[in-house]
Amino acid sequence: MQRFANPGQFLRLAAAVQPWAAGLCALATAGGLYFALFLSPADYQQGDSVRIMYVHVPAAWMALSIYLGLAIAAALSLVWKHPLADVAARAMAPIGAAFTALCLITGSLWGQPMWGTWWVWDARLTSVLVLFFLYLGHIALANAFDDADRGARAAAVLALVGVVNLPIIKFSVDWWNTLHQPASVLRLGGPTIHGAMLAPLLLMWLAYMGYFLVVLITRMRTELAERRLRALQLNAEQPTRVATSAVEAG
Q: pTM (2 decimals)?
């Protein structure tokens, strides 16, 4: 990890990775939508409304995995003082919040024709809503202090505390009686979903992952540029402050 602690090294790596991530996003999106709309069969009970799954499920995977990455960045920032960890955490939180919002919205759109309601307070839905608020809390705390370091520490603590919600989301369907079915893809015995449905799910997940990498790199590069600009402005103002203090003292 220390190899990429230098912003210059990170920026060189990011410049190489970003075009490939954009290409992955474009190709996987095209392939995933084609499979989902034309090759994947309609469900015998849910009909064509099951196709919402190809947007909803990968969004849920991304919401969970990004938060795990956020927590890892928080640990690197608090414990090992990794210089890019806070930059990565600040960049990840809004993306994770967007994927969580997409998961909640598409879940409601899918749930209404299947369950007859837009929302129920079952364990899975409630815990995902909590995840959304954790993302918003991280964003708010990171920007709530004039001292950026204090904001980063407070947001990092919240991110680490919120990790306890991840297993609750994952295993809520096994621990409690919920409207959601048990896992059919990410399970120890292997996927139970048909290959014609699994293929577009995985392709859309790759598309989301490519999108995440593109936006993450863009946000991190922007944050680093803003920090460098602030540092240059402070250095430019420093001689003026010293001269003013000398005049006042004289």
A: 0.87
**In the chain, what is the greatest distance between 2 CA atoms, to the nearest angstrom?**
88
Distance CA 213, CA 96 (A): 12
DSSP 185: S
DSSP secondary structure letters along 10-65: HHHHHHHHHHHHHHHHHHHHHHHHHIIIIISPPBTTTBGGGGGHHHHHHHHHHHHH
Q: From the CB of residue 62, how many other CB atoms can be counted at a distance below 10 Å?
A: 23
Low-confidence ranges of the chain (pLDDT < 50): 1, 246-247
Provide the CA 185 distance to its chain's centre, in angstroms: 20
For 117-141, the pLDDT digits (tens) are: 888 888 889 999 999 999 999 999 9
Radius of gyration for the alpha carbons in the chain, expressed in angstroms and rounded: 22
For residue 101, what are its two tokens?
């919002």
Residues sharing a CB contact under 8 Å with residue 11, sequence separation 6 or more, in sequence order: 221, 224
DSSP code at position 189 = T
Range 176-212 burial, b when 16+ CB lie within 10 A, else e? eebeeeebeeeeeeeeeeeeebbbbbbbbbbbbbbbb
